[in-house]
Amino acid sequence: xxxxxxxxxxxxxxRRLLNRLGERDxxxxxxxxxxxTRALAPAYHHRLEELDRLEALLEEQLAQNAxxxxxxxxxxxxxxxxxxxxxxxAVGRALDALLQRVLAGEIPNDRAVLLTELAAYAG
Length: 123
Known about the structure:
By secondary structure, the chain is an all-alpha fold. Helices cover 65% and strands 0% of the residues. It is elongated, with a radius of gyration of 18 Å.
């Protein structure tokens, strides 16, 4: 289903790809795109360089232990509750919102920053 999905060679795209698919499936999708590109006319082979850059970015994110899942987020549900978020689905929504902002590069996966953001969600 992701066979024709665009894969831009950007740091944010690498984090989102890891978030959505995990390491194994992200690598598999890049391999599918690489095989498809090789099957095209040589005029399209410039795309191979983009896929190489995306794969390098993916490697870099993994080497830096970048945050791409809730489990890697520097705060958790207990922190959300302590910040005053109402128990229940609101905790998950707040944590997911923080994760999306970390993935987008809007905020760092820094505990102090995330605790401040959680307090704003509770406010």
